[in-house]
Amino acid sequence: MCGISGEIVFGHGRPRLDAVRRMTDALAKRGPDGAGIWTDGRVAFGHRRLSIIDLTSAGAQPMVDGAAGLAVVFNGCIYNHRELRRELERHYRFDSASDTEVVLKAYQRWGEDFVDHLVGMFAIAISDQRTRRVVLARDRLGVKPLYLSQRPDRLRFASSLPALLAGGDVDTDIDDVALHHYLSWHSIVPAPRTILRGVRKLPPATVRVVEEDGRSRDRVYWSPHYGRRPEDAGLSAAEWEERVHDALRTAVRRRLVADVPVGVLLSGGLDSSLLVALLAEVGHDGTRTFSIGFEGASGEQGDEFVYSDAVASAYGTTHDRIRVGSAELAAVLPAAVEAMPEPMSTHDVPAFYLLAHTVSEHVKVVQSGQGADEVFAGYAYHQPAIGRPRAAAVPTFLEHFIDLDHDSLRALVAPDHALETDVSRALAEHGIADADAETALDAVLRFDTHVLMPDDPVKRIDSMCMAWGVEARVPFLDQDLVELAAACPPEVKASEGGKGVLKSLGRRLLPREVVDRRKGYFPVPALRHLGGPVLEHVREVLTSPEARRRGLLNGDAVDRLLAHPNAMSTPTNQNPLWNLAVLEDWLRRNGVPA
Predict the structure, then answer these.
(1) Mean pLDDT over residues 313-337, rounded?
(2) pLDDT band for position 524 (50/70/90)?
(3) Closest Cα partner for 454 from 569, 337, 375, 351?
(4) Which CATH number do you get for residue 278?
(5) Contact between residue 286 and residue 279 where contact means Cβ atoms under 8 Å apart
(6) 472 SS3 class
(7) pLDDT at position 303, please?
(8) Distance from C-alpha of 41 to C-alpha of 323, rounded to nearest angstrom
(9) Of 189, 220, 251, the domain-final residue
(10) Cβ count near 421 (within 10 Å)
(11) Peptide bond just before 62 cis, omega within 30 deg
């Protein structure tokens, strides 16, 4: 619901308030409804507000409790804030109806363990003046971002990487390991890395305590087991379906907590359609839904309106359809890249940017279906892991997921940035092999959900919506639902080509044609089949003098790709030229020196 920033000084210096103001101003689109700066002379916090809970000035941030010696900036939403308030009111007096104050009192009550009591999405910074510590925390699935830039004398944080750049004094050299990840995994750079050496991300489900001398310690406070639980033994597929139904209904209800209307991003796929059906089940009337479609290209259809229309009609929603032509898409690409917290080449990013613009004219909060595929094994690359022994998880995943193998990647980047070691394979091997998981599919899903997903679909939906002051909530990433799905047997959740348990539920709640059809992806054909103004944009970016001076990529290899722009496609149906163009364009637009 907001953008946060801050600086913590170690030793005898004072925070650079001008830098904090610049970082805060850079987050204005995330929080168009208000701004604030606070400092105690050692710590400075900045905040941009998107008013969703307690719309009065009492909910403004930074929020300070002078008597307790605490100050907080907080981005996100605590879905159980009313329940926590009732518990905490026995001990403290409240001056607002905001969930921010609940976060502050929860820390006062439970200290560093306060996060264990929070149900929601959040990035939090708390200054504890009595212990002279700053506590940073990020939600369990990494829905809300927190970027960090540390020097020996200070630490800065912000809700986006460009905001840290606005503050200045950041090491902007390219992180070659992150570049390897970016090119291997269709622009995913898992935490803690970013594409720049001088910026890191706080990993999901992590509390970091920063001492006044700059030392810090981390605690991972949530890590579900991916395997069968004794108490679930003997459950039938129908019983699992009912459990998932109950948990998803609860997740949807939780994400209605707001003092403003809540809509739905309705793609026409199974996941978002289920959200509409469940909102009706919990009695949410007058739901507003939004769909987007694009001009087709090379025989590929660019919209799924036939399905979203069917769901909107079945549940009587107020439905908005946005249709975008190729010229309009090309015109918006620069703005979409500027809105990215990191370079993100997945082709639905501009789609969400355009969709969120329309949404912002009607509602401030939407529910979205992101995460269902990772949690319930919905992608094609999950299927080969079904029934395989635990030891087969790593090779099975890598065979079906990576965009470029190590040798191809080395040939594409300039020699100065080409690594000898396949660092992306090494990270996957470590993450999958060490996962707390029972089967090969469990291990793959755990890695996908907790390592890759926060920097792929979650980052996309949050950043593109927040670029227009819209908060996106993701019920499929409810902590209780994720724990339940982790325990669900693979033959139940991954049946029928993936998401079998959701498909079975969908047949009870949705028009049949929405469920029993070939799986679709958010279609933006013009970014897969490059031509016309989009190809012109890609060519201009990759052949620009600045790109050549930067020397990040092998110019001859890029020229060969440009000569046949649609000859190559990755296993996940991406055009690698778009991946390269987004990277170069993002670096240029964020002033990263060539």
Answers:
(1) 90
(2) confident
(3) 375
(4) 3.40.50.620
(5) no
(6) strand
(7) 78
(8) 51
(9) 220
(10) 10
(11) yes
Any idea what the Cα angle at residue 235 is, between residues 234 and 240, rounded to 5°?
160
- Are residues 344 and 196 part of one domain? no
pTM: 0.96
Amino acid at 591: G
Please state the separation of Cα 486 from the chain's center in Å.
Answer: 20
- Residues with Cβ < 8 Å from 328, sequence gap 6 or more? none
Shared domain check, 254 and 143: no
Last residue of a domain, one of 197, 220, 243: 220
Asked if residue 244 and residue 166 are part of one domain, the reply reads no
Same domain, 210 and 326: no
Instruction: Of 457, 487, 249, give the one whose Cα is nearest residue 371.
Output: 457
Question: Given this model, what pLDDT does residue 527 score?
Answer: 82
Distance CA 272, CA 277 (A): 9
Assess contact for 367 and 143: CB atoms under 8 A. Answer: no
Nearest to 125 by CA among 21, 23, 208: 208
pLDDT at 259 over 80: yes
pLDDT, position 104? 98
Prior bond of 490 cis (ω within 30°): no
pLDDT value, residue 11: 86
Q: Which residues contact 227 (CB under 8 A, 6 or more apart)?
A: 436, 437, 438, 439, 442, 486, 487
Q: Tell me 52's DSSP state.
A: -
Q: What is the mean pLDDT of the chain?
A: 94
Considering the chain, what percentage of its residues have pLDDT values greater than 70?
Answer: 98
- Separation between Cα atoms, residue 589 and residue 594, nearest integer Å: 11
Contact 180, 423 (CB under 8 A): yes
As given in the structure block, the two tokens for residue 397 are 């995943």
Buried b (16+ CB within 10 A) or exposed e, 102-116: bbbbbbbbeebebbe
Q: CB within 8 A of 268, min separation 6: which ones? A: 291, 304, 305, 306, 307, 308, 309, 310, 311, 514, 520
What is the domain range of residue 568? 526-589
Amino acid letter, 295: E
Half-sphere exposure of 554 (CA within 13 A, CB side): 14
Q: What is the CATH number of the domain that holds 122?
A: 3.60.20.10
Distance CA 495, CA 513 (A): 18
Kindly state the tokens that stand for 123.
């990035």
